[in-house]
Amino acid sequence: MRSSLRVIPSLAVGQQMADSLLEQARRRFENDRYVALRSLIDDDLAAMLYGHIQRRVEAGNIPQSQSHGMDASLEDFADSLMEHVLKGVQPRVEELCGLKLYPTYSFFRLYRTGSTLRHHRDRPSCEISVSVNLGPKLETPWPLWVSGPQGAKAVELAPGDALLYRGVECEHWRDRFEGEELAQVFLHYVDQDGPYRDYKFDQRPALGMGPHTRGALTEEPGAPKPAPRVSEPEISGTE
Ligand SMILES: [Fe+2]
Predict the structure, then answer these.
(1) Residue 36's Cα: distance from chain center in Å?
(2) What pLDDT, in 10s, does the model give residues 102-161?
(3) Which domains, ranges and CATH numbers included, belong to the chain?
């Protein structure tokens, strides 16, 4: 009797491919300390978040950039919606880096013509960082440079794509932006079992709270004190 070909259900093929891509991303992250991720969030969510930033620009309530000398940019720390995204994306980031994480903070930036990002590494709250492109789609890509133990690489991201990187370890930067505008959201986490675990919520009492609440944890009698703050070269911003 002729044996029939074993048909693998398409769902299983999809799962196999997803597992293989996940394994590939994990290995790359472990080896290079960063990995580019295609479509970390879907196009609709990216467009919605970009629209949210645009509405805030129209309302005139986004602070001018105070970090990294990017005079042309607008940015904000812990926007309510972005904090929600920080929490929502966390399980996927944990899967990709193979760690249990605490969220620290979210931060968005709207780059505009003439923006640059100087060479830097991030502060302890950015141990595991994700920079997500929210759009718009650029005619000329504007690469994010990142440097790890295997060398430097220019990473081009489309809306929904992201760079997962170890922000404290990997230097990163951008050259001058010649386009009109580009929105990015930065989602930051620390390893629950790592050296920066005391930076949970960026040392705020909870997600969604402003930077002025850092270190204002309610002290219970006998409770361990929060870790001392290390000096931070920048106020809040990172990419
Ligand atoms: Fe950064």
Answers:
(1) 11
(2) 999 999 999 999 999 999 999 999 999 999 999 999 999 999 999 999 999 999 999 999
(3) 30-213 (2.60.120.620)
